[in-house]
Amino acid sequence: xxxxxxxLVVGGGPAATWAALKAAEQGASVxxxxxxxxxxxxxxxxxxxxxxYVPPDEKAREAAMSSREALGGHLADRRWMARVLxxxxxxxxxxxxxxxxxxxxxxxxxxxxxxLQGPEYMRRQRIRVKRAGVTVLDHSPVTELLTDAxxxxxxxxxxxxxxGQPFEVRAGAVVLATGGCAFLSKAFGCxxxxxxxxxxxxxxxAELSGMEFSNAYGIAPEHTSVTKTAFYxxxxxxxxxxxxxxxxxxxxxRSVIARTLLSGKVFCKLxxxxxxxxxxxxxxxxxxxxTFDRLxxxxxxxxxxxxxxxxxxxxxxxxxxxxxxxxxxTVPGLYAAGDAATRELICGGFTGGGSHNAAWAISSGSWAGxxxxxxxxxxxxxxxxxxxxGGAGLRPTRGAKDVDVVEIxxxxxxxxxxxxxxxxxxxxxxxxxxxxxxxxxxxxxxDLRAEGASTVTARQAVAMVAHARWMYTSALLRVExxxxxxxxxxxxxxxxxxxxxxxxxLDQVWARPEGAAA
Amino acid sequence: xxxxxxxxxxxACDKCIEVCPTNVFDRGEDGLxxxxxxxxxxxxxxxxxxxPADALFVAPHTHPLPAESYAHDEEHLRRTGLxxxxxxxxxxxxxxxxxxxxxxxxxxxxxxxxxxS
Lengths: 518, 117
Fold this sequence. Notes:
The complex is a heterodimer. Chain A has two domains: 2-214 and 316-388, 3-Layer(bba) Sandwich (FAD/NAD(P)-binding domain), CATH 3.50.50.60; 219-310, Flavocytochrome C3, Chain A, domain 1, CATH 3.90.700.10. In chain A, helix 15 (427-447) runs antiparallel to helix 16. Chain A has helices spanning 14-25, 42-47, 58-66, 78-97, 118-131, 196-203, 254-261, 275-284, 290-295, 312-315, 344-347, 355-379, 405-416, 419-423, 427-447, 454-477, and strands spanning 2-10, 30-33, 49-50, 115-116, 135-137, 142-148, 153-160, 165-176, 208-209, 216-221, 236-239, 266-269, 304-311, 319-320, 334-336, 386-388, 501-504, 510-513. The longest helix of chain A has 25 residues, at 355-379. By secondary structure, chain A is of the alpha+beta class. Chain B is α+β, with helices and mostly antiparallel strands. The two termini of chain B are 23 Å apart. The chains are: A alpha+beta, B alpha+beta.
């Protein structure tokens, strides 16, 4: 199947749907291709999210911007924060009015718009996208980008896994809104987030930023998936012997939990919630209680074992580097939005999980969609000669032997999931992990050749290997502790390293301070 | 993980096959969905949320449960109200109020707004 369109949006979560809506509003023809199903795919659809929705009151806006600047290691940008707050406010109101999202009303009658129930939000976004005339391709993972003779992005190719056939979309511009990378950790709703967008972008020469901010871990009851963490503010954490785990906490003190989990179990009770809070919690987050109700656990009175699941760059802030207000990348015709893009502009180096990432997805999606539409219009409809940009997994340099994709995934997971490698980082450990990952890259680059349906899993594995290498290369360059990128061997903040870190490359991975010469 | 497709309740509408973000279902020869790739299930409960017949049950475990587990005991799941409970909680289905409209949670800080998600 081959389609021709002005704008191709890759992904199907919040950023993708906002991009598709805004590109269509500009009069562009739009195709949206999602790996899963637009409406259920991605972290937000399953998890739900707070939204950084702050009415345009000067004091409230100032407080919203200043509250997390230090946490983020002062790498965020005030101008971007202000424009995200403006755009998010408008778009969320649009969702209430045009989208008819049923926001609740507070006890005093005021409408509340500071959060979104995932299934409801994304079901409505799907309806809106379809009404706008967007062609939606579900179960259609993009496996590589197409570029023209000048290196501009001109479409994408992939495989329709339910139809069992390859597809190609020729486009004037492409928006990557594929989410972050959680390395198939089974964190809630995150298994479609395998870092595909960053790989596609890097293969056309795009740059990444903030990849050291990639070690977010969410709390979940042991052996389960629901990594919703807000209500752990009501928790007391315990050791296996029933003693209180001192210093453990959800917001600050998650590393104490990680450290303890390395040698034993950690239990938890939400024993700080009173009756009124308990009742209200069920209304706010019905999905949080799925696990407990089905296991017959009363989380307010029964201690339950917990785990930490990796959420990588989904709740971290690293991603494709943005170079202008329209969310363009360094490659012409290529735009990035949502968790696929860096969120440092508004979060710095602190987790954007929840409200900031949601606001970023709405804003960056809207901007990227509009700019992609303008770029495509300026380009006109003339046919372009294109070539496929995909490398590892599709076009091996040697192709001499079979590569076991499952084994490659296992290798990456062994280097990025363990708390004592990725969470509690140390230079020696990162260097040794990077050697394993470089080996995995050489193997997929030289020998992995997938065809048909198997290209999808092969390219996911390749994307995860690449993601992990950008993460650890950037983490090694940051010889200090800033934001979430903490180093056991360099625990202090170094004022001389007050800069973002840009990275990229595939066969030769590189990282350097933003703005430094190559 | 997805553990139960109730043949008694399924109306063969294909909705679960369509909406599963990780593509775990196939259509069986009798028209009922078959869990072909359980290991790909990410335990996101979306199939359950979207099943108009309350015919699916997703256990919270991220690993498969043994045959004798409660998650395969349809009668038990019906009796305890677990079958279809997610849809009920989020207010999806005929005659229900969307859960989003009632989602007024606690405020996590004294000055902060109530959580609504």
